[in-house]
Amino acid sequence: MKAQKLKQGMDWNRTVMYWFDHSRDIILEEEQPVSKTLDRVVLHYTVKDGEKAYFSNEYVPVGMSRKATKKPDITAMLERGDRRMVKWYIYDIKDTVINMNTVLKLCSQWHSGIAHIEEQYLSGLYGYGIECSLGVITRYWSSEKLQEEKERYQEKINQAKSGGLLTARKSQAKLNEYRQKIKAVQYILDGVFIDNESYGEERSYDIHYISMARADETTYTAEMNIEF
């Protein structure tokens, strides 16, 4: 995987993968345009002797289109070569997780993030133990509102089916779309994301939630430890 060395005190750019071999904090900030408020996430990297760390904000592998690529906000990794260990983190920042659009974006970003590090990095490591951490950093999420979203699309399916067989056949594409949306919401409700890997297998990942707290009138903050 192509990565640039991130030296102490050096600024970083979005979409670029960096590596470093020292403990440090990395601060990400994301403005919410509608509310004019700010989300700030501090990544606390603990990097011990013999370990190598990676970080990217909205990682895009070299050669891929930035516009066409789904990008999770945080891709982070720690590698310990002498023990043949790797731990990766893929997280996205969302102000709320309460509606279908957000759920679909999350699932798409998780899928792309996993695929990118599998293809660009993990495929070159043999015999390594791999620990995974996948999730979302958010101000607020609601299982009740997500359940309502799920029931709304289930009702759409029921209505299409009650219209008769001909209507159901003509609406097959829409029905498949609704089923995929219900499946995505169910991942969030169950706390387990099931990803269809590029080589055809399914793999499940526990979904972790990190809550942001209000720091002042316009800023919400969260902290996240990156360590073995």
Description:
Helices cover 29% and strands 39% of the residues. The protein is built from 4 helices and 12 strands. It has an 8-stranded mixed sheet. Strands 3-4-12-11 form a 4-stranded mixed sheet, with no helix packed on it. A hairpin with a 5-residue loop joins strand 9 and strand 10 (202-211). The longest helix has 21 residues, at 100-120. The radius of gyration is 20 Å and the shape is globular. The model has no long low-confidence stretch (mean pLDDT 93).
Brief description of this entry?
The protein has 228 residues and is an alpha/beta fold. The chain has helices at residues 100-120, 143-162, 165-170, 172-190, and strands at residues 4-5, 18-20, 24-32, 37-45, 51-57, 74-80, 85-97, 129-141, 192-196, 202-211, 213-214, 219-226.
